[in-house]
Fold each of these.
Amino acid sequence: MSDSSVLRLSRSVCVFYVCFLVMAAAPDSPLYLGLDFSTQQLKVVAIDGNLNVVHQDNVQFDSELSEFRTQGGVHIHADRLTVTSPVLMWIKALDLLLNKMKRAGLDFSRIRALSGSGQQHGSVFWRKGASQTLNQLDPDRSLHHLLQDSFSVWDSPVWMDSSSSQQCQDLQAAVGGALRLAEITGSRAYERFTGNQISKLRRSRAEDFQDTERISLVSSFAASLFLGGYAAIDYSDGSGMNLLDIRTRNWSRICLEATAPHLDRLLGPPLPSMSVLGPVSSYFVHRYGFSESCKVVAFTGDNPASLAGMRLQQGDVAVSLGTSDTVFLWIQEPRPALEGHIFCSPVDLQAFMALLCFKNGSLTRERIRNECAAGSWEDFSAALKDTPLGNGGNIGFYFDTMEITPSAVGVHLFDSDDHEVSSWSPHVEIRALVEGQFLSRRLHAERLGYSILPGTRVLATGGASSNREILQVLSDVFNAPVYTIDLSSSACLGSAYRALHGLVAESGVSFFDAVKKAPKPQLVASPNPTAKQVYDEMLKRFAQLEDRVLHKTCS
Ligand code: ADP
Ligand code: XUL
């Protein structure tokens, strides 16, 4: 059978299966919808009241909306720094997605609430008069026709943009330095953060800026489409702008003033992430058969929505071992720093989440696997089994490319006397790499206010989480049990969970009570009894050696 017929057959099987699931559930049982406007695609999942997934679909921007000529969902401009996406592409993707869902037989009238997420930091600039257009959408026409004149900026800056360095410097200077900005907003100035993008646009495209009536994040823009009016920015995604005071949960006056005049009018007041914004607009009622009482719950950023999808709880840490490694933390008492980001929690008004990105993750593990284990993950794992916890005092730093956390580069190896050495046996090298990576994840998480407590769980996701021996080292270094969780569409699923929770949040039901029927993560590794002693000591040496590496790299 040719590839295309296999694809057609598997598609038909999928459509049949989805229709079967939709029809198999009680005909009028409630559904909750989660959408994710991510960089490369728009995804949707519908869950029932038992939190079972009953429908999933997606629209790929590059292939299904090729008229926008994006690569990976974006346009990289000639300066290589400016990265944007056409706002109408996102709208057309929603038209397409809803039509696919209709064809698959989804009964929209069963949806009690919907929510969603968007790639963080991206911004949408609505033209003067757009609010009126949003308010009177004609259900006989598609959204992208109706809204084609509603934006003052067609190419929305997205998170991959790094063209606002000057604005970052200006903002930090205005508020009293990088650390002061981090204390207020949870992060030092980052080029991709929305405030700096707004500031750049105000200077570089003054006329378009003048013609702007409202600025949304990708998340609140998507919520506005469903609401038929401007949706508030939620606290959690709002924390990725360098504009929100994460403790008062209001716009920071000093940041607003340094960014653009009267910016609070353009942004509207921020709201708690679990807020019900209102009923779905009559456009969706008439065009797709949504119920008039279906509620739109505030949309948020994709990382906060993933935290909800993983159901990360106080004390937990999630480690995603993908191309690069990401660490998510639930934080009660944040200590914003010059590295990492603190966001308001999307599921608990009193809490915060931290996000740390490490560039040298799986690709570095692959390099060492190729050099020390003949390209075999089995041999790599065997080396981890054969070597002792603490690796005889050897500590390695492997920054093949310029690391984000911390900002250092190069490979730096130290023996048990802290003397720099040039090489090790393959087995020592493999353990040094994996221990070094996880010591670094723990060190930087602790610097942001994380501490290992009794009951702490490590949730592991991403490609390398299929490797038990790697997870055993993770468990030992964190001295906590490691659980795995399938993260394939966590932001989308998290949005559906948030939709469900939004309906009961006002009556005091916690997010975790609302989603307690969700599938449980699997326990895969428990710490060795000697792990605490070995790694508590090793962490102190690791921190000192990292300072040496930083000093060496910078000088
Ligand atoms: P992405 O960031 O693209 O979503 P994934 O989460 O899919 O990445 O992870 C891909 C990575 O998983 C690969 O680069 C590979 O190195 C790693 N990986 C896959 N299988 C194993 C394994 N058995 N042991 C360790 N790493 C693995
Ligand atoms: C987080 C970040 C990305 C985007 C895109 O700070 O920039 O993870 O949210 O997914």
Note: The chain has 22 helices and 24 strands.
Amino acid sequence: MTPENAATDDNAVEAAKERYRVEREKRIRAEGKSQYSELSGKFEEFNRDPYVEPGFTRDAQVEEVDVVIVGGGFGGMLEAANLRKLGINSFRIIEKGGDFGGTWYWNRYPGAMCDVESYVYLPMLEDTGYMPTKKYAQAPEIFAYCQLLGRRFDLYENALFQTEVEDMAWDESAERWVTSTTRNDVITSKFVVIAGGVLHKAKLPGIPGIENYEGRGFHTSRWDYDYTGGSPSELMDKLAGKRVGIIGTGATAVQVVPRVAEAAGELFVFQRTPAFVGYRGQGPTDEEWFKSQKPGWQDERIKNFTRAVCGEQPNENLVGDEWTTVMWTDTTKVPDSPEEGADLERIDFELMEAVRNRIASIVTDADTAAKLQPWYGVRCKRPCFHDEYLPAFNRENVHLIDTNGQGVERITKNGPVVDGVEYPVDMLIYASGFEVAPTYDRLGFDPKGRGGVAMTESWGEGPHTMHGVMSRDFPNLLMISTTQGGFGTNFVHYLTEVSKHCALVIKMCLDSGIAEIEPTAGAEEDWFMVLMGKVAGVGAYNAACTPGYLNAEQQAGDMKAARAASFMGSVEEYANHLIRWRENVELAGVDVVRVG
Ligand code: NDP
């Protein structure tokens, strides 16, 4: 997929742009993000944790600690590990699931894996000495690695599992946060770090009649192996002879489809927008290479990967996989000249054309292949890389039900309906993704800061933060979040940087007698200007994209929505803002109250 060598006809680029426009417009829905529904009400059962034994009880915990950490996924675990490294051991982790892992605790669907190279995705490999078994780690290995991190940093003794925060309020006179939970714990702390996750609140498509379906239905993040049989790594034997439907063809479905295809009697894949599916190239870890790495190798490789996928074209491409090849040029860049603009369009077109040609060369039925071809720009949706997804459509038992961009029409008690045709299925899988909303909408609780004012109220006109980490009137509350915070292809790179930052802020406060810290209103506005300054190129590019969660379903946003933006530059650039702030001994942009 090297774009330079193809002499592309300008007409082909223009024709593709026109096709992109048609496909995009076909998909825009007036309801925008509200076309989806939560896993609540009638669908509460969909949200149940299927991985724990029911009936767990324990005594309520009443205690005081230095730090409460909300969330035991990679964000919360890295926060805790960084605190330990700095000698801060008085912390409590509150986690909804039955173990550490977050995303990797919940997502146990067959075929689940991380599409980012394991040597840059799995954090702290040099601390743990762990060697990933494969270039792209499978979900069970990542979950086990989370448990290993938990043991390595003695985090289990600090964790309260199967516990959710119910309320969190700042006690002005005591200068403490008071956190209460669903298990009647009351924990008082100097600081709280909210690491509540980003893509963790599952959503269902709001398809008419969805509540009438009488077969077995569930979201991919709550896989029911009791029904399907098998396990993440074994054939789902109970699906033999069954008719299965899957709604969605995003990054999750691309991983699930091949595994269900091999087990089910018939599989119907309901597609609204085809995925970008590039070459994967999975392989075992070369032990000799891994062991030959010099200290500091992982940090260097992580940064190199981020530079490559942000189009910074580092001198050497250390990871050298399809992610880095595809993202090598930032085609969302604001061009300096019309010639550069034309060049970026050509590169983008050639990358997508290569994907379309690859599909046509793998999928034998020409009509199916054409329907699987994506018609949008390379950075419009998260690209997927998989070597078994496309061949699955060559199987006799796999049927692509393309909805021509309209989505499933309705669901009856028997199954989905498309173009007036009902597809009765025994089991219906919703691979419909996760909600992307500002922090407070996803947490399940509403922190109350100074004067008892809730975050939803304080952020009534939109989020206000410094770095996405601290918010005025919420002293000593630190957030690991994409709301005004960073974002990246390798999300763990972002978590690594921001968790380190939060730990260093806490350490600095504890060591220098700072009892309260919060940003000034001016610093928050300055940060918002930084965020807005990064939006320009991506905004223009996104406007021509097919809708999806990365562009808020192409719904016209107001200022409140705009204020929830993430930092659109690279994780490294974002981290440099944090580093510069920490290195400024004047504590710029914050108000502090000293102890005593
Ligand atoms: P997505 O939001 O990417 O996909 C949801 C799918 O459901 C889309 O194909 C969407 O179509 C489809 N859909 C929604 N409504 C309807 C409808 N009414 N009828 C038919 N289809 C419908 O969710 P995923 O869970 O696939 O992925 C979410 C994110 O999770 C990824 O982008 C990635 O960031 C992360 N992820 C990462 C992985 C990794 O390896 N690192 C693996 C898996 C997920 P449409 O596109 O038209 O909206």
Note: Residues 253 and 532 are 33 Å apart (CA to CA).
